[in-house]
Design a protein that fits this description.
5-stranded antiparallel β-sheet; about 15% strand; alpha/beta; about 725 residues; 6-stranded mixed β-sheet
Amino acid sequence: MSIPKKTLEDLEFNVVVDQISNYCVTSMGKEILLSLKPDVNFDKINFSLDLVSEYLSSLENDNNFPNHGFESISKELKIIEIENSQLEIESFRKIKIVVELAILHIKFLKKFKTYYNNIYSLTESLNPEKVIINEINSVIDKFGFIKDNASSNLLKIRKGINTTKSKIRETFSSALSSYNVSGYLDEIKESSISNRRVLAVKAMYRRKVKGQMMGSSKTGSIVYIEPQETLVQSRKLQDLIYDDEQEVKRILKELTAYLNPFIETLSDYQNYLTHIDVVYSKAKYADEISAIKPNFSKEKNIKLKNAFHPLLYTSNKKQNVTTYPQTIGLDKENRIMVISGPNAGGKSITLKTIGLLQLMVQSGILVPVHQSSEISIFKNIISDIGDNQSIENQLSTYSYRLKNMNSFLKKCNSDTLFLIDEFGTGSDPELGGALAEIFLEVFYERESFGVITTHYSNLKLLADELPYMSNANMQFNDKTLEPIFNLVVGQAGSSFTFEVAQKNGIPYSIINRAKKKIERGKVRFDATIVKLQKQRMELDKTTSSLKDEESKFRKEKEKLNQTNDKIKSKLINYQELFDSNQRMIVLGNKLNDIAQRYFNDNKKRNLVSEVIKLVDTLNSKRKKTNFSKNKLDKIKKKRTAQILENELKDIRKEKKRNKNIIVPKKNKVELKIGDKVRFEDSRSIGTIDKIEKNKAIVNYGTFITKVDLIRLDIV
């Protein structure tokens, strides 16, 4: 795919790319971004968007990516390829930084693989070659100097240099002291020429001082001489410095040769860091414009909800001006949209928003839309926006547009998105409108997708007649005669020509004369459109109000359903608990009867027989219960709240009835404080501490309890 240069210029794609490139921290990343062009490969675009989304998430949490700033090592890699070549120390520093950063990223992404899975995939093929860092560190210190122990020979040379420098200081100090005592030296005593210390000898005594004359003063009264013994050591030092330079060159050549097998690795490191810089820049820009990754579809579909034009958004944001988002959709059932309405109402910016966001997505750039938005891929994106009068080619606006339309006719197909502003203008309204209508019919027949803006009524009518084409208008406040910047789909818009003229101070008499100049049908048609737009605005308000009410009722209904479910659940639990308690009471009574009989006759055989019989009865019931458990569960679920409430009432009545059946028990012996007592059928014995009405406070030693007198037996 090749997007025409004019389309990129019309939609100001290059301006967006330029703004993104300002976030780059590397020259290579900036270079790649500035050459960025839209793509058509679905998987490639989707992967690029995922990379930016993941990096964007890192800007919003504590897992920030490590630094990725580096200087290009492309020249260094070319030098390493050359046999017997040598890199400078600065080049090794740059290479070391690239390797360190790459290894840092590899470790980071391995640790946070689950968070940044797509970015991690970029480093899967990269090996952390720490040996490169170790080798460079063994030769060059952190200040950028060759280490003394980089080689045994270099260490020996540098020791010799230090020794020689020490001897130079000693011999010079000795000569200075000796000749100064002799009175041969001037008051300044010494000086420095070419970084070598020299004696300041009075000219008359120059033959008295042994050594090499290095120069003289301007007046000639002083001669600068390097003492003989110092001169010998200085020559030795020069030889050692030369040896040092040669050894350093040898070491750097050796280190350069060592890096040769790692050329591909170093290139991969640099490519990764450059890629990350591009992703980082896109993420920073996305953060600035509040952009996200929309739903990405292989089907031809554009559904932009609350979409902002990024350049307008950033500009208005700086000026603290409100930016109005737009919602627009194109699909197979609605391929072409004709937007009409007054000038300065936002038609062109809506058109540009669609086109620019499409280019951005196909370039792997996140866009400022609602998260439910959907977008797909178009192989051809063509546009005709603005006044394209060409002075250079001596073409009028209309001629230029006809030339453009001819190009459109060659490219338009089902993979094309076309964007045309002020379609049909530049010629006679009737003739130009007729030709524009034919062009639009051809685009429609070729199943192209597109958006046009127009004032021509015949194009609005065509959009109403064709099934896969629709009208849309930019809303306009007919009272204040100011744009609302809201796109309404499904209805053509009026140009508000006479209304806007009246607001701008044109006398009503002139406007009235203008109305008489045109057909009455045209005026009535335009007035009808205005009336329909007013009704549409009122209907939108009513619809919005009804939706709000519906939303409130739905929430209330959900709350009532939740409360009802909770009540049902509680009623079922109460029923099950009551049934369980009733069974336990019956079982307890039966066991009590068996115990009483055993107490009376003391026959263990009868006791065991009756207990076993009772256990068998219980087990048989359990089998039946398990068998019909699923069936009972279904029955319970089908019970309504009313039935459960009735059952609860019956349970309460049954409890009252059972309470009424119980015959009050009277103590055989009148109990008093200090009596030893126990609960009926219990073995624990306590002492009555206090009696209040029909209740006694019984002390069991380890605890105290309050019980009814009728439940106590005297011991």
